[in-house]
Fold these 4 entries.
Entry 1:
Amino acid sequence: MTTPTGRRTGRPRAVTEQAILDAALWQLDAGGAAAVSIRGIAAQVGIAPNAVYTYYPSKAAVLRALVERFLGDVNHDRFVDREQPWRQRLEALALELRAHLVAHRGAVQLLLGGPMDGPNALTLRESLSEALADGGLAPDDAARASYVLLVYIFGAIALEVAELDQRRIPPTEHDRVSTRRAVLDTLPAEAYPRTTETAGTISKDFTTEQFLWGLTRILNGLQA
Amino acid sequence: MTTPTGRRTGRPRAVTEQAILDAALWQLDAGGAAAVSIRGIAAQVGIAPNAVYTYYPSKAAVLRALVERFLGDVNHDRFVDREQPWRQRLEALALELRAHLVAHRGAVQLLLGGPMDGPNALTLRESLSEALADGGLAPDDAARASYVLLVYIFGAIALEVAELDQRRIPPTEHDRVSTRRAVLDTLPAEAYPRTTETAGTISKDFTTEQFLWGLTRILNGLQA
DNA sequence: TCCATAATATGGACGGCGTACAGAAAGATG
DNA sequence: CATCTTTCTGTACGCCGTCCATATTATGGA
C-alpha cells in the first residue's frame, strides 16, 4: 500500500494515494462529509472516476484511509512529554484533538462512520492510557477511563458539528453563542423552566470553556 | 402539520405522515441510516416517490421528523418520578436512552446529523437538568452538567454503533467482546503495551457495564 | 345536478452517485 | 521491435433526490 518498493513494470500511475486523500480532505472541508464523492475526487486530481479504484477498492476504503491519516496528524505532539503533569498532558491532547476536528469539521461523521481500529487510533488510546496511568490509575482503570475520555471528546465534537451547516464557512464562536441565545429566548418558560432560566449558560454549550469544564469534572471523577 | 383540523377539499391523502415515518424507521432498522431512501419509503407505503413531497418538503425534513418522534418515544417514563433518588433517575434515563438507540442503531447517525433542538430534545435536557438540580447542583452547574451527560450518552452509543455493520443483525454482546478480544490479541505488545496488557478490559468497551462504570465516574465528578 | 376549485396523486425526466466491464494507453523487459 | 503488466478511459447500469406537467378525486357553490 505505502511500500516504496515493488511495481517494476506497467503504465505509471498518474497520481498518488496521498493526492487522492488530499482531494478527499479538500472536498470534506469544502462541503462536509456528504460532499465527498469519488467523482469529485477524480475530477480534482485529473483522472477518470473509475481510475480511483486503482488506488482504493471502494469509497469506504478511501474514507477509512482518510480517517487514519487524520488521526495520524494529531498524535505525537506534546502530550507524550512525560515530564509534564499528567492532567496538563491530557488537556493538551483533548484540546488538540478538538482543534483538529473543528478545523476539519465533517471529519467527525467519518470518524464515527466506521470502527476506529487503525494503528493511529490505537496509538491515541495508548497515549491516553499512559497519561492516566501516570495520574495514578491502575492499568485496567486507566483503560476504562481512556475510553470514557474518547467518548467525551468525540461526542462533544459530534454534537458541536451537528449544529453547523457544513456547506457554509463556520461562524465565530461568539456569533454561534448569540444565535443560540436568541433561539433560547423565544422558548416558553412554562414548558422549559430550567432551560430558559439558564439560557445564558446553555447557549455556551459549544464553547471551548464548556468543553474544558466538562473535561475537568470528568477527570476529577475518574481520579477518585 | 399535525393539526387534525383543516383540509376540507381536495383529493384525500393516501397515507399519513406517521405511516411515512414508520416506513422510514423500518428501513433504518433494516439497513442503517444509509439505507433510508425516499424511494424505499414510498414503495413501502404504496405511493409514488414524489408523492412523499406532499407530506415533507425534503428528505432532510423526513429525517428531522423521525428524530423528533424518536426522542419523544424515550422521554416521560420513570425518571420524572421525583420520589426516586436522583442518581437512580439519571441512570434509568441513560440506560433507557441507550436501549432505545441500540434497538434502533442507525438512529444515532441521524441524531448527530443535525441540530437536536426540537421540543423533545429540549424536554430531554430539561429532565436531565431537573435530576441534577435535585442532586444539589446550582442551576447553571446543572445546565452544564446535563450537557456533559448528553455528550457522554450519545458519544458512547455513537462509538458503539460505529463498530457494527448496520446491514446485518447485531451479534450478542458476548460475541462482540470475543471478536474484539481476538483482534486485540493479534496486536504487537511492543507497539501497544498498555492496550495489549489490558486487552480483556478494552474488549468490553461496548458493554452496558462499562457504560455504567463511566456514567458513575462522571456523575461523581459532576457532583463534587 | 353539474361545475369550478383545491389538494393530492402520478409519469417522466434530469443530473448525480458508486462502481463494474471491456478495451485502449504506456512504460519495462526480453 | 514485440510482449507483458499495470493503469487509465469510455461506457453503461442501477440507484438516488427532486422537479415539472398532468391526471385524479374529493368538496362547496350555482
Entry 2:
Amino acid sequence: MKQSQLFTKTIKEIPKDETSFNAQILIRAGFVDKVGAGIYNFLPLGLRVLNKINNIVRDEMATISGQEVLMAALTPKEVWQTTDRWDNFDALFKLVGNDDKEYALGATHEEIVTPLAKKFLCSYKELPKSIYQIQVKFRNEPRAKAGLLRGREFFMKDMYSFHANQADLDQYYEEVKAAYFRIYARLGLEDLTYLTYSSGGAFSQFSHEFQTLTEAGEDHIYICSDCRVAVNREIIKEHNFCPVCQNKNLTEAKAIEVGNIFKLGTKFSKAFDMKYMDDNGQAQEVIMGCYGLGPSRIMGTVVEVFNDQRGIIWPESIAPFKIHLLSLKENEAANEIYLELIKNNIEVLFDDREEIAAGEKFADADLIGCPYRLVVSAKTLQAGGVEIKARPSDQMGIIPLNQIINKFSH
RNA sequence: CGGGGUGUGGCCCAGUUGGUAAGGCGUCUGGUUUGGGACCAGAAGAUCGUGGGUUCAAGUCCCGCCACCCCGACCA
C-alpha cells in the first residue's frame, strides 16, 4: 500500500472527546473513527488489524473442529420470549418493523443457534458439533466507555458446542481453553493473560474468563501466583482462596476480559426442545457450551498493552503491515524495493509522499507502529542499502539492498 | 439511571463587565527547505450543539432539550 493513496492520514491533536488511550491513539493514527459513544468505524489500517485477529481466531477454532457460520443479526422477538430474556436482558437493542413486528439486534446468539442446530443435529451419530461466527454484536450498554474496550457495537467470536453427554462437553471445554491460550500467545498476550474463575451458574461450579492485565481494564482479578490462575470479584467474595490450590495469598490486579467460556448445560436445549436420539432410540437432551471472545476489544487491549510515548507497537502477528518503508526523497529507489517486497508477498506500507518532511514520516511510522521501519535516503543508498529499525528499539543498521527480501521473507 | 464536566470552521482551542468571532493543525496557491511533525507570503472555510426567552444588541445572561467525556450503579 502506498501511503500517498491511503484513505486516512494521521492527526496531531488528541481528540477531545476521548480520554482512553486506545481510542486516542487509534483515532490519531487512522485505525478507527468515532461515530458515537461506543460506536466506531474501522478504517483501512484498523480493518487490517481486525482481520488478522479474526484470522488467528479462525485458525485456532479450526484446530478444535469449529465450523464457521454467519447467523442473522436481526432476531425476532419470539425466540427471546422462549427463553424469557426479551424482558430480562437489559442490554437488548429492540426495534419495531412493519406491522409492529418486534426484533432485537443480536447481543448473543443462543436463541438463534439452538433452533438452528436442532434442524441438523438429531442423532448421537451427529454429535458433538461446534459452530461459531465472527459478527458485530449490539448491546445497549448503559455506559459505553474506554474506546474499543466497551462499545455498544463490537465484534465477537461466539462459538457454541453441542454434546451428547456431560463428559464430552467437559473434554471439549478443556480443548477450547487450550485453543484460547494459543490465540493469546499468538497475539503476544500470553504472559499477561490469566485464566480466571468466575461463577458458573446452574450447570457447573465455575465458568472461566480470560483476563489480560492492564491498568486500562475495568475488572479486578485476584491472582494466585502458585498456579497462575486468577479469580474474579464474585468468586473472591464467596471463597477468598484459589479454587485450584486453596492458596489464600492472592494478589489484586486490574484486567480486561478478553474472552469467556461457559458450560450452558441443557438450559437452551430445554427451552427450544432440542433433543437427540441415543443408540437405544431414546430421546436425550443435548448438552451445550458457549465460548466468547472479542476481537475488537482485543485490538484495544493490545494497544493499551503495547505502546510507548510515540505510538503503537503492534505485535508482528496482527500489525497492519510488517514493514513501513519510508522514502526520503528517493522514491525511485524506494519504489524498486517496494515492488520487490510486494512480489514476495511481504506486507509493506510505502510512504511515498512527496513534499513531506522526514520528521513527519518518522512520527507517522512510530504512531502507526509497524514492526519494522525501512528508510531509503541518499545517505543510506550511499552506504549501499537501506536503514532498518525495529519499532520498539532505537538501534538502527544498514541492510544491503540484496538482503532485504531474504531478511523478511520468512 | 444518579453525580460531575464539555459543546465555537474538518481537528485542537481563545473569546474580558453582553457590542457582531482570534490563533494553531489540516486544506489550497506561490516560494524556500529536505534525517524527527521545517519556514515565508497569500487564500478558502463558522447558521458559535439545538429550541425558546431576556435585551437596542447574545458565543457570552436565563430556561428546556440533545450529544460527548468522567465517577458510580449496571455489564447473560
Entry 3:
Amino acid sequence: MMRKVQARSLATRDRLLAAGRGLVADAGMTALRTDEVVLRAGTAKGTFFAHFPDRDHFLAALLAESLRVEFAGLVAPADRPSLLGLLDLVFLRFAADPETVALLARFSGPAGAGLGLDRMICSVTDRLAEGLAALQAGGLVANRAAPDVLAEGLMALVFHAAALAQCPMPGDQAAVRARAEGLLHQMAAALVWPQVGG
Amino acid sequence: MMRKVQARSLATRDRLLAAGRGLVADAGMTALRTDEVVLRAGTAKGTFFAHFPDRDHFLAALLAESLRVEFAGLVAPADRPSLLGLLDLVFLRFAADPETVALLARFSGPAGAGLGLDRMICSVTDRLAEGLAALQAGGLVANRAAPDVLAEGLMALVFHAAALAQCPMPGDQAAVRARAEGLLHQMAAALVWPQVGG
DNA sequence: TCCTTTATTTGACTATGGTCAATATTGGTA
DNA sequence: TACCAATATTGACCATAGTCAAATAAAGGA
C-alpha cells in the first residue's frame, strides 16, 4: 500500500503553478481565477483541487515560491542600520498586496505547516535571530529575551505594520505606508534596543 | 439633497444583525450563510448587500458588537500582573476562532474605518496606553517609546499570538494555545519591561 | 501478457457570495 | 392632496469556488 507519487502528478502540479505564476504576473493575486489557471495548464477543474485544497493554498504556494526567490540572498544583519533595513525590506514586500497580508495571517503559523510559506517565514526569522544573537553579544541589542523570541516579536511587528499599510482607499497610499513604517521602527527599537537612543 | 436615513432602514439593519447574531450563536461565524441571514430577517438578498458591502463586513460588525460588550468593563492595568492579564484576556478572545483572526487582520487597521471593529480595537489600545503611561511614571514600564506606541506594539504581539494559536488540526489545541501565550508573555516583557526580571 | 490495485484525472454539478435594473416607499413641497 | 425626488427593497440572475462518482492511466505481481 501507499505507492509512490507518479511523475505525471508532479508535472501536472508544476503546470498548474506555472499557469498561476503567469496569471499573477499579469494581473495580481486578487484577479486570479481557478478556471483560468486550469485553462492555461490544460487540466480539468477537479485536478486543481486534487492538488490544492483550495484557492488560498494555491496562492500561498505561489507566494512562498516568490518570496523564497526574493529573500534568497538575505544575510543576518550585522549592525543596527542593516537590521532596520532588513525589517523594511520584508515589510515592504509583505505590504505589497492585501491578498499577501491575508495569506500571511492565515498561513504563517502552524496552519501553514508543509506549505512552503511557513518554512520561508522561518528562514527569515532564523536569519534575523542569527543577527540578533551577534548584536546581543556586541551589546547593540538588549538581552531582555532570547534571540529567537526577539526575532519572532520583530516579525509580529512587521506583520502588523503590513496590515496597517493596507488602506483600500487609493488616496495617498504612500503616506499610509510611511506612517506604518515609522511606527514599525519605533516599536522595533523599543523591543530590541538597550535604551532609547542608545 | 442628502436626506436623512429612514427609520425603516435602521430597523432592517437591526433585523439583519439580530439574525446574524442568532446564527453565529448557533453554529459559529464560519457556518453563517447570507441566505440564512436574510431568511431569518425576512428581507431579500439584495437588501443584505445594500446594508453591508460583503459578508466579511457583516461579520466584522457582529464581531465588533460582541467585543464591545465583552470588553466594556476593561480598565487600565495598574500593575504588571493586570497588564499581562489584560493581554491574556484579549489574546484568548481573539484566538477563539480562525474567522476572528482573519477579520481582525483585515479590518483592525485603516481598512476597517467606520466599521466599529476599528473603534473597538482603538478603545482597548487606548486603555492599554493609559495603563502604560501610569506604569511608566512608576518605573514599572520602560520609557523606550511613548505609551501609545508601546500599546500598539503589544496589540501587534497579541494579534500575532492569536494567529499562531490557529492550528486547524484538532490535536491538543490547548497546547498550541499555551505555547502561543507563553511566547506572548516573553515578547511583551521584552517590549515593555525595563530589564529582564526587573 | 493479463489482472488487480492504487494513483490520477475528468467535467458536469452544487453551493453560495454578490449584482443590478426594476419596483415600492418615504419625506418634502406647493 | 398631488407630485417629485431621494431612499429603500426586491428577487431573478450571474460568477466562481469547490465536490464527487465515474473514467483512465500507471504500477506491481502471477
Entry 4:
Amino acid sequence: MPTLTLPEGVHVELPEGEPVGAALPKGTIAARVDGHLRDLSFVPGDDAQVEPIAPHSDEGLHLLRHSTAHVLAQAVCDLYPGARYAIGPAVADGFYYDFDLPEPVHAADLAKIDRRMRQIVKRNQRFVREDVPRDEALERLHDQPFKIEIIEGIGSDADETRDEVTSGETVSLYSNDGWTDLCMGPHVPHTGMLGAFKLTNVAGAYWRGDEKNPQLTRVYGTAWATKDDLDAYLHRLEEAERRDHRTVGADLDLFSFPEEIGSGLAVFHPKGGLVRRLMEDYSRRRHEEAGYDFVYTPHITKSDLFEISGHLSWFADGMFPPMELDGGTQYYLKPMNCPMHILIYKSRTRSYRELPMRLFEFGTVYRYELSGVVHGLTRVRGLTMDDAHIFTTKEQVGEELGSVLTFVLDLLRDYGLDDFYMELSTRPEGKAVGTEEEWDEATETLRQAAETMDVPLVMDPGGGAFYGPKISVRARDAIGRTWQMSTIQVDFQLPQRFEMEYSGDDNARHRPVMIHRALFGSVERFFGVLTEHYAGAFPLWLSPEQLRFVPVADRHVEHCEALAARAKDAGLRAFVDDSKESVGKKIRAAQLAKAPYTLVVGDQELESDAYTVRDRAGTESGGVSFGRIVDALVAEDSSRALEQTDFGSA
RNA sequence: GCCGGCGUGGCGCAGUCCGGUAGCGCAACCGACUUGUAAUCGGUAGGUCGUCGGUUCGAAUCCGACCGCCGGCUCCA
C-alpha cells in the first residue's frame, strides 16, 4: 500500500483500487500532479509531486462546476428517459449541460431537476474513472449519438482535447451510480462535495456551436465552493438587474424604443438627451484640443462606395437592404463612416505636411442586427459612433498610436471608468483582406504601442476586423463586469483599395496608413454602460438635474424660484418641485429621480438664509449658506468629480 | 436567423388552464389639506387586452401568421 506525501505534510495511504480523493484532507479536491490537474485515483506513483487544489481556487471551482454538470445530466437522464446528453463544461460562474430531450424543458421544471440533483448529492456517489478501449466506450454509450460523435473525433488531427490522459487508443469514462459519461476529468471525489449550486435558466444552443447543426436544450447553473459564495453571486445578479439600463432608462425617463419605429431604434427623451449632449460636448471639446478636425457625412450612399471598401462582400447580411432607384442604382444606409472620411481625404491631393490628418464625426450608422441579438442600448440597429480616422505616414503610425491610446484611456477615466485591460485581436483566418506580412506588421505596430501603456494586454487570436487588427480597451464597471469600450485599428487595406496617396518630402507619392478609432464605440452603448455603472446616479457634471428645491408650502415657491435663478446664473441645472404634494413625498420623488442635491426650503430658510443640503445618500448637512452651496456645486461640476461634495454635518 | 418564454390603460401586475364582452396598485387629473427631509386624504378619467385572420351564438382567454419584448445560441465591420 503506497503512501502519498502531500506538501503540507499530510500523509495519505492509497488503498488498492480506491480513488485517493476520498482520503484527502477535508476541503481538498483532486490535485495538481506533476503540474497537471489530475484525478488522484490516477496518481502515477508515490514519488509524484502532488499539490492539493483548494476549492476556492480557479481550478477548484472548475472541478466543482464540471462535477455539478455531471450530476445535472444524471438528474435529467433520470427524469427524462430517452434524453441524449451532449457536452457539459464549466463556464464563468457556473456550468451548463446540453441535451436532446423527448419533451421541452421549461424554467418551471428546473426546481424538479434541482430536487433530483440534491438527492444524488446526498448519496455521496463516487466519481469512478475507467480508461477503456474506444470500441468498448462506443458500445457502452451506444445510445448516445453525441458521445459517439465525440469518441469518433478523438485522436483526429482536428481534435484539440487530446493530451496524455486521452491518448486516442483508450478514452476515459467517469461513472457514478451506474450513470456514465465520456469525460477527460478530473472530478471531485464524490457527489457529497457538491451542493452550493443553483440552476439558473434554460435556453437553446446549437450542437457544437454551429447554427447549421440541430439545436439542443441547454440548462445553465451556477456553482460555488460555499453557500455564502453562492449567495454573494446571486446578490451580484440582483444588483446587476437593479442597474439594468433598460429599467433605469424608463424609470428616469431617459430613452425608449417605440415599437412603431422599429426594433433596436432608440429615441432619447429630454433628460436622456441632456445627459447624452453633456457626454458628447465633453468629447468634442477634448477632441478639438487633441487636434481632430470635425466633419459631417451623409447617411446614405451608392453601393459603389461599399463595393470598393469591401464591406458589401463581407457584411451585406449585416446591412439594411438597398433602396433601388429607377435607373437601377442602389443606395445603402451606411454601416460605417470610414469610406466617407476616406473620400474627404481624397477630395484633393495631399501633402505629407498635412499628416497626421485626424477626421472626427459623431456618425450615425445603421446595421441590420439579427432580431434575436438586439438588446437595449448595447446592441441596436441605429447607432452613433464617435468615429475618427487618422491618416498618417508609415513612420508616424507608432507615435500616433501611442498618443491615441493615452488619449483614449485618459478620456475614459474622465467618464468615471478606471479599471482597464486591453485586448489585441489578430487576423481572422479566411475572413481577411491583405497579405500576411501586412497583417504581421500592423499587429506588431499595435502591440508595441499597447505595451508602452501601463495596462495589461491579453491576446484575442482571430478577432480582428477584415481589414486590420485591433486593440480593444475593456473596462470593469462598478460591480466588476467588463465591457468592451474603445477600439483602435491599424489598416493598410482601405488606403490601398481607395488608392489613397500623399506627396512626400521626396516629391514621390506614398500611401498613407489609416487608424480607425472609436472611444465610446457607439454613443448609445456607452450611454447604457454608464447608466449601469452609475445605476442612474450620474456624477454631477453628467446629471440632467443638479440641484432640486422642495418648497415646504406654496408661500415658499417664490423664494425657491429666486434661488434657482441664482443657481442657473452660476451655470447649474436647477429645478423647483412646486407640485402640491407633502414635503415627504417630494423628498421621495427627488431621491427616486437621483437628484444629486436637494434643498428643503421653508420659513426657517427664509429667515436665516442657511440651508440643509440633502445628498443622494440621504445625508443631511445643515447650516450651509446658499453661496457656499453654489460655489461647491460649480466646483464639483467643473472638476467632473465622481464623489459628491461633503458639506460637513451641522 | 434559431430554441424557449412573454405581450392586458404611462409603469408594475391579476384575469387566460375550465371562452360568457376587463380589475388592482403607482403615475395622471380634480378637490380638501399648507405640510420640515423616502409615500396625507377623498374623488375623476383613462384599456378596440400587440396586429391581422380563423374557430365559435359569443374570444383577453382556443388556433394560425406577423410585429415587438425577454433569456440563451449564432453573429457583432
